[in-house]
Amino acid sequence: MKNYILILIFIFFIAGESFSQLVRKDMVVPDIPGYVTLKCDFHIHTVFSDGNVWPTVRVEEAWLLGYDAISITDHIEYQPHKKYIPVQHNAGYEIAKPQGDRQDMIVIQGSEITRVMPPGHLNAIFIKDAKRIETERIGHMHSAETHTHGYLDSIDHHHQDYMMAIKEAVDQGGFVFWNHPGWEPQAPDGIKMYDVHKDLIGKGWLKGIEVANWDTWYPEAFQWCLEYGLTMLSNSDIHQTEEIYEKITKVTRRPVTLVFAREKSEESIHEALADARTAVWFNDMVIGKEEFLEPLFSQSIAISQAFFTDNDRNRYYNLKNKSDFTIDLLPPDEDQVIELLPQSTVIISVKDNQGEIDYDVKNFLIGPDQSMRVKLSID
User: Fold this and answer.
1) Which pTM was predicted?
2) How far is Cα 96 from Cα 270, in angstroms, rounded to an integer?
């Protein structure tokens, strides 16, 4: 009888474990010819700067949402929890990386270099030791008891030690990009590229810009990326829990950087970013170069054979969206947009003499004010 009870307890325990298992909601985004499409967030904070969660929570949140890779990018300079949590610049990555390995999530080491504008806030990812990015002046500041935002003004209005921090990140093989260039507290007069940024681009140190951050996207940053050949990024900059973030921002989806990599690996992501093979997925918009958006679109849809012909010889087709994108199609000479929701199908009709249809894909942007035009071939 005793053994029977023990067996029942064991079965109950195993059943309970299986029922409590976390379930991932995959992001359905197609690969494009020659590349796999990886869903990434390269701007995330934890309690080791001004975030509110432990590093492993960041991995679990991103895994549940369907991301393939993240970077923990805690501030080097801003450490508001240091009274309770020692300043340890590598800790976020070191704690998150083993959790990522267990959940098939690529965790990339990074840090945020935090200064007044210019140059503003810059992320450095693929670094090897965040501690070495801390300059002497910043280290001295961390030794003080109190910590406020005001320290940045006295440091950077008179000392350009941010150049030393950026150089160290670059020397470590880091990929440096400019965060939220139009963030109002640092750009009260509107978004602007300064000479400092042009100098960093000229040196080959600044390689990308966040076109979207938090709950905002920046058309000007999109244009700069096109003009200067920079990598486009779309990141959450999340500090709270995922649930609170969604309630505060009211975004339809947390920002995603789509990376077109040769394989799912950290090395391939680095190579793709260096080659500017990315696109921005922000709310219901997909933003990027046409060379990537066109195959992304074509791999997302499928058109059936004609299933009906009416008395006027109009042919009817099923147009299916296989992806998680919302796709807004504007037919020629019409003002009514066809909204093709994620993983859904609409019926379209085509005149008898047509072999293809032109559409403006209103929410696939290849320029700040330019939507992508496509031709759909039909039988």
Assistant:
1) 0.92
2) 19
Q: Of 209, 165, 214, which is closest to residue 191 (Cα–Cα)?
A: 209
- Tell me: the pLDDT tens digits for 98-115? 999 999 999 999 999 999
- Break the chain into its structural domains and give their ranges: 20-295, 301-377
**Token digits of residue 227:** 């003009």
Q: Which helix (H) or strand (E) holds 312?
A: none
20-295 belongs to which CATH class? alpha beta
8 A C-beta contact, residue 109 and residue 73: no
How many Cα atoms sit within 13 Å of 309 on the Cβ side? 8
Helix ranges (DSSP H) in the chain: 2-19, 55-65, 91-102, 136-142, 151-156, 162-171, 195-203, 219-228, 242-249, 266-274, 290-298
Residues 128-153: b if buried by 16+ CB within 10 A, e if exposed: eebeebbbebbeebbeeeebeeebbe
Cα separation, 237 vs 218, whole angstroms: 15
